[in-house]
Amino acid sequence: xxxxxxxxxxxxxxxxxxxxxxxxxxxxxxxxxxxxxxxxxxxxxxxxxxxxxxxxxxxxxxxxxxxxxxxxxxxxxxxxxxxxxxxxxxxxxxxxxxxxxxxxxxxxxxxxxxxxxxxxxxxxxxxxxxxxxxxxxxxxxxxxxxxxxxxxxxxxxxxxxxxxxxxxxxxxxxxxxxxxxxxxxxxxxxxxxxxxxxxxxxxxxxxxxxxxxxxxxxxxxxxxxxxxxxxxxxxxxxxxxxxxxxxxxxxxxxxxxxxxxxxxxxxxxxxxxxxxxxxxxxxxxxxxxxxxxxxxxxxxxxxxxxxxxxxx
Length: 312
What we know:
The chain is α/β, with parallel strands linked by helices. It has 13 helices and 12 strands. Helix content is 38%, strand content 14%.
């Protein structure tokens, strides 16, 4: 649960033109290929840790964020990734290691000889520590809104020399989300509860995840929680029972074994409309907690649930 965990736990790109290199004869393809691969560099990216300049295309990338690992492979930078953190489980071919994004070990990271490290959070001042060793770092934190997520994909595209594919990915995501939203019935009557964990923590409409649900015209019961201002209120079982949502989305299935059967055992929940009408949706924890390309997969799950609940 990288997205939810990061938020609950801690709760524009300028490019230059690269030199063409040598004036090699046509019979020498290597220099030409090298020059082509460096087109667009040096490049400066505006990240959370400030302006980061990369003098050449990175070829040894270490990703300490499961979300950004997914993005890197989606934009064609997979061959440049030589190590990822222990939570990066998608795509399957990602070079998973024992590196941790939650407890970063600078010595272990540097052992991979990276020319670019990507993190979501500056835990234990890892950004500055790597900077002291002249290792470029991009900090791209959990976004507050969809546009921020798109901007981070663009940042990774520029930083890795895959700007065109990143732009293509963002355009595709926007088009698909718009298509799903347009197809969903919006009578304004359906309410929902999105569970981050069985504490239970929820997410309001003002959060990134809440904005995804907002595309479908749903009303979020968490918006009326006493501590909703923080975006991620801790709800009581009584609060949820009283709100009686039409739809319940569980993002704590793989991690915590939650399901319709476990919800029935909670005080006052067995008669909830969502349970009686079989409107409890078990999400993929990873898809529901990351803000990369698979946001579209999450939206598809929400759209299907809304259609079912609406009888369409």
